[in-house]
Amino acid sequence: MYIKRNESGQVVQVSREATAECREFVPPCSPELQSFVAEDDAENLALSKSDLAFVRVLEDVINVLMDKGVISFTDLPEPAQQKLMERQSLRKRRNSVGLMSEEDNDTI
Fold first, then answer.
1. DSSP state of 24
2. CA 59, CA 83: separation in Å to the nearest integer?
3. How far apart, in whole angstroms, are the C-alpha atoms of residue 99 and residue 18?
4. Burial of 91 (0-12, 13-18, 19+ CB in 10 A)
5. pTM above 0.85, yes or no
6. Which residues, including other chains, have CB under 8 Å from residue 76's CB and lie 6 or more apart?
7. How far apart are alpha carbons 74 and 76 in whole angstroms?
8. Cβ contact 15:22 at 8 Å
9. What is the Cα–Cα distance from 40 to 14, expressed in whole angstroms?
10. Nearest to 11 by CA among 36, 38, 41
11. For 34-72, what is each residue's pLDDT tens digit?
């Protein structure tokens, strides 16, 4: 693996091949490379969790807009309609078997 370091000597970029920016070779088992990759994985996981929560916010906003008559379900593109219907169906099935409480349903 080839890395790029910042002014402090910390790894800031990784490449499988040598590039203009990543010229320094380090073995894949290098502790600093492993640390950099693990940090990136943690950031990706946090972003994914945030995305899931934000999807629920958007779904709630869409429902509020429809409830207030600002938009109608048919105003949404067909793929968006299908995704909303799938999520509503999944949520109803999940709630009907008692896997979630009403409080959990509001915090997802």
1. E
2. 10
3. 50
4. middle
5. no
6. 62, 84
7. 5
8. yes
9. 11
10. 36
11. 888 888 777 878 888 888 889 889 999 999 999 999 999
